[in-house]
Amino acid sequence: EKGGYATFMEKEIHDQPHAVRDTLLGRTDEEGRLTLDELRIPEEKLREIDRITIVACGTAAYAGMVAKYAIERWTRIPVEVSLAHEFRYCDPIVDERTLVVSISQSGETMDTLMAVKHARELGALTISICNTHGSTIPRESDAVLYTHAGPEIAVASTKAFLAQITASYILGLYLAQLRGGTYVDDIKAVLKELAEVPGKIETVLERMGRVKEIAGFMADTRAVLFLGRHVGYPVALEGALKLKELAYIHAEGFAAGELKHGPIALIEPGQPVFVVVPSPSSEHGLHGKVVSNIQEIRARGARTLVIAEDGDEAVVPFSDEVIRVPATAPLLAPLLTVVPLQVFALWLSTAKGLDVDQPRNLAKSVTVE
Ligand code: BG6
């Protein structure tokens, strides 16, 4: 059942190309237009929405943060990400023109379910992005967009995360197509890039030997920091979460731009820092700004573990380790850059002799508030 792997988590990490491919499957017609029959909400209603709120917990909330960048970019609809357990208690601004998108692997997370119920009471349209057929959250929502990651057994989420991000891209592109606007011509180009992602995840997985080796030497590490910017920021948060969950190591993710506003004080000689570097093709010179961050922390003695695109030579002089991922569209990069961080957490947990699939104090789905 573990497909020859020692743990479910390792198997599920290797399932990721399939999880993304299967979640993309059957979403377009012969002309390459997106068709989402699962979304049983009239198109006119979806055309009228003027704000989107994403509600989720844990890893699913980080998928929501990635989704925000993509959906806003493609639709120009303002998107807010709200931790589901905060949503109900902050007097949320929601009405019948608000689309509330819940993201949940299990479909049973009580905090997320209560947020969805509250949103419906306030008159919002609700769509559930969910991995579990027939679960409660999709039943309580107006519509559902299923992720096809297959059953996820390990407590720490991996393949469901990639499938959630994929499904939110699909939703964003679908809304862009429906509403017309400037982005529509580019939808096919994004879909083409997305179709190439599963093969690129395979490539990343083939290269993970060195990450396993690095993790194997780090069992005594007390703290690890993660930096990322733009869509790399939620990836940094997810990398840190994986390490807390699996290896019980103090780990923090930061927006790289925040570094000089505080976190740089944490840097001392030998401190390991993962940096998720934006593609050199990113807009607004983001790549160069993150390369400067690497330079700054390296100058203070940090041990820099850098995740960078193939061919990005600018990072090399400041990196103790460069972990390479294939090039893709900047908004899609999280589907590749998070993989080494999952693999790192898996092998560090293993190096510490911990239970990878059943970390202490955690449950796969939390059905109490
Ligand atoms: C947590 C799980 O308690 O719930 C996380 O340990 C998960 O892995 C989070 O991300 C949300 O779960 P779900 O099923 O709603 O996606």
Automatic annotation (TrEMBL):
It is found in: Cytoplasm. It catalyses: D-fructose 6-phosphate + L-glutamine = D-glucosamine 6-phosphate + L-glutamate. GO terms for molecular function: carbohydrate derivative binding; glutamine-fructose-6-phosphate transaminase (isomerizing) activity. Its EC number is 2.6.1.16. Residues 42-181, 214-359 form the SIS domain. Keywords: Aminotransferase, Cytoplasm, Glutamine amidotransferase, Repeat, Transferase. It is an enzyme of class 2 (transferase). GO terms for biological process: amino sugar biosynthetic process; carbohydrate metabolic process; fructose 6-phosphate metabolic process; protein N-linked glycosylation; UDP-N-acetylglucosamine metabolic process. The active site is at K364. GO terms for cellular component: cytosol. Catalyzes the first step in hexosamine metabolism, converting fructose-6P into glucosamine-6P using glutamine as a nitrogen source. Homodimer. This is Glutamine--fructose-6-phosphate aminotransferase [isomerizing]. The chain holds residues 251 to 619 of 619 of the full protein.
